[in-house]
Amino acid sequence: MKTYKILSLLSLVLVVGFCSCEDFLNKQPRLSQTNALSLSTFDGINKAIIGAYSPLYASSWYGQDFEVIADIKGGNAKSSPKNSGRFKMEYSWTNTPSSTSDLWGTAYDLIARVNNIINACDGFTEVGVSQAEIDNVVGEAKFLRALAYHDLVRMFARSYAYDKTSLGVPVVLVSENGFPARKTVEEVYAQILLDLKDAEDKLETANTHGGTDAKAWATRAAAQALTARIYLYMGNWQKAADYATTIIGNSTFKLFKPEDYTIYLSSPTTIGSITGVWGALTGGSEVIFEIFGSEGNSSHGNWDVISYILSPKGYGDVGASRDLINLYTDATDVRGALFTNTALYPNDLWSLKFPGKDTYLKEDNIPVLRLSEMFLIRAEALAQGATIAGATALGDINTLRSARNATPVPAVTLSVIYQERRRELCFEGHELFDLARTNRPLTRVDYAGANNQNVEADSYLWAMPIPQEELDANPNCEQNPVYGKN
Asked: Most CB contacts within 10 A, which of 214, 242, 337, 360?
């Protein structure tokens, strides 16, 4: 895997992120488009924030790796019989500083972009541009920065619940050359909450960038939904429940009906013209925020995309584990239908959540925040002692199960909630981090690797190694324990 260092990213000229959005032939040459010049007008700032979304679709992030790593390390996925060597180290939990998640470089790329935008907007004025328009851009930038830091600290640090005083990731708020040290996990989460509060205050209820997919832009609801998740990770049950309730009560969002959840199966050849969830061109009623997949995205991974790695029609390296499949005990649960096998491998299954928008499996929309997660967050928070008038954990779980045509459960425990999260959120980048944030060990039955079938909750392996290239370039960046002693 290729790795990156923060130093090289913070010196990038931001215009690279959005120069394709406009023809600069009649302006200064591209190489002379400095940050100051590019961000000197609101038009430039607006193009910059659009470009800042691009890294989210990179193969190292939501375009493929992030979801795959969370599920293949978390036990929902496994190396399939078609495996050609991809994700073998993640499957066996044997990553090294020289071969670790590429999220580090990609996320700090995005952070560098939005830092420049946030700082350019400080005191910015332009005739004909309202403060609300400027504030909305800042809100978008801070939402993206919060999401980036959340994913970084989940991937490269121990969980908040395990040890909030342990090393997190560097918090960089100004894009400049430097040698940032790692902040504690608690300090990283504090910055995330600061960004999300400002984003919630500044963002509009609906984004005005336009385009094909309105759910691909940050909104106030997206900031609130991510805040609910952050408080869940911190174990602040009441605030997690409060924020989840805000989204549940937002009439803009509605749970998919059973036929919506599996709409791809009923019309796989016309997926580009329908509105649903998996692979559709526009986010359905349940989607709060998603990444819009397009080959026109400068971060598009070509064949290294989630649909191709999960489909037996593509690489198919990553299949579903029987540990996951065996959770779908209710024959009417539509979620159990989102798996497929092949004539060659009739006993193996692959996820259909990302079917691809075309016959080449090269594009998908990637849901990041959905209404179903808010019901799951609130149910867990209520089970942990939070109170919301008129709401119960049992009611929330059965509301979700009803929307999936599954039989209601008679009682709810944390174990029931955790299993429901696996059924609902598999292959969306959750299971590994759900185990980590709840201090549960990894236990795999359907496993064919050579190492680490089971991983204890206190193992150092829960934090991925910091990329060696970052350590070589930054003397202040400390490696995670044990990795640096190998």
From this structure: 242
The three-class DSSP label of residue 332 is coil
Element (DSSP H or E) covering residue 351:
strand 350-351
42-52 helix and 103-121 helix, angle to the nearest 10 degrees: 160
Please work out, in degrees rounded to the nearest 5, the angle formed at the alpha carbon of residue 37 by the alpha carbons of 31 and 41: 135
Identify whether the C-beta of residue 141 lies closer than 8 Å to the C-beta of residue 118.
yes
**Angstrom distance (rounded) from CA 301 to CA 46:** 25
List the pLDDT tens digit at each of the 486 positions of the chain. 444 455 444 434 333 343 333 332 333 344 445 677 789 899 999 999 999 999 999 999 999 999 999 999 999 999 999 988 899 999 999 999 999 999 999 999 999 999 999 999 999 999 999 999 999 999 999 999 999 999 999 999 999 999 999 999 999 999 888 899 999 999 999 999 999 999 999 999 988 787 778 899 999 999 999 999 999 999 999 999 999 999 999 999 999 988 888 766 655 444 434 344 565 556 678 999 999 887 777 887 787 889 889 989 889 999 999 999 999 999 999 999 899 999 999 999 999 888 877 666 777 889 999 999 999 999 999 999 999 999 999 999 999 999 999 999 999 999 999 999 999 999 999 999 999 999 999 999 999 998 999 999 999 999 999 999 999 999 999 999 999 764
Tell me which H or E stretch contains 138. helix 131-156
How far is the CA of 444 from the CAs of 81, 322, 440, 463, in angstroms? 18, 10, 13, 19
Residue 27 is classified by DSSP as S
